């Protein structure tokens, strides 16, 4: 049986037809033409008519189950022919309505049965009462079973729908995290190279009197930096279709090479490195990215100024990364690079600070956990 208000399907038509025919057959079987109970012919006619009308009403039982079940209780006061339809309506209420409503309908029909036995003056009234109540209880129990089974199936469907929705959201979040990771990698990998490239190109622009050897050397550095930037870009683009874990990731051991590359580009960098012990990969990678972004910002906002880098720490005490460089009077607001660094530090349960010091330098400091 479908829920009230829903359009009847082909299966519903088959079920309703079988129920209708079954109710008529059961009603005719229990109908007494006066052979067992001497009653007036008018009552017998009303009995049969009421039973057939109640059987016809079964086609509308999904829309008005309670009202029709109460009508069945009224007809059951005198009608034998309505017994089949009454059983169907009791079961329908048990399927579609709460158990309290079903209990009231059950009680109303049981009371009608008592009155019926008095009106019809049945000889075997007690046996009929027990049999009828047992049938009422059986069809009500069957209706409760169908209701419980439907609720269970609906619960399973809801859970499946929720699980599918959660899986979709998780996939979207994973895709978003992958895009953010790729964006960070592209920013970190290319930003540093392009900043160095900009420094050398700017030097050529401001040195029109440079010798041929100096111009050739600067051009070679620009060519090498551009080539390396192109290689880095190819690496990042090459893994756009791969899992995030396969993105090219630097290690803490690559930090001295990063500093040497900046020195070779003409940036005065002083590095203090005092970190010994087995460092987790994600902590070392985060430290590398912090230094890389700090050098990129130094080149961008204070070209030619010296940069002091201090990386110290030990297992159990954490890793401290600090960059200092003279800052110009006016600095722009926090860019995407520093926001990305804050996110990186937070991902490893670390913290990041940046700002101007009292002596006018720009300070970038991060503390990263280093378990013992």
Automatic annotation (TrEMBL):
Short name of any one Pfam family annotated for the protein: HisKA_3
Documented EC number(s): 2.7.13.3
Reactions it catalyzes: ATP + protein L-histidine = ADP + protein N-phospho-L-histidine
Transmembrane segments: 12-31, 43-61, 68-95, 101-119, 126-145
Keyword vocabulary terms for this entry: ATP-binding, Kinase, Membrane, Nucleotide-binding, Phosphoprotein, Transferase, Transmembrane, Transmembrane helix, Two-component regulatory system
Span of domain Signal transduction histidine kinase subgroup 3 dimerisation and phosphoacceptor: 179-243
Domain of life: Bacteria
GO molecular function: ATP binding; phosphorelay sensor kinase activity; protein dimerization activity
UniProt source species: Kribbella shirazensis
Protein name per Swiss-Prot or TrEMBL: histidine kinase
Entry keyword annotation includes Transmembrane: yes
SUPFAM superfamilies for the chain: ATPase domain of HSP90 chaperone/DNA topoisomerase II/histidine kinase
One annotated Gene Ontology cellular component of this protein: membrane
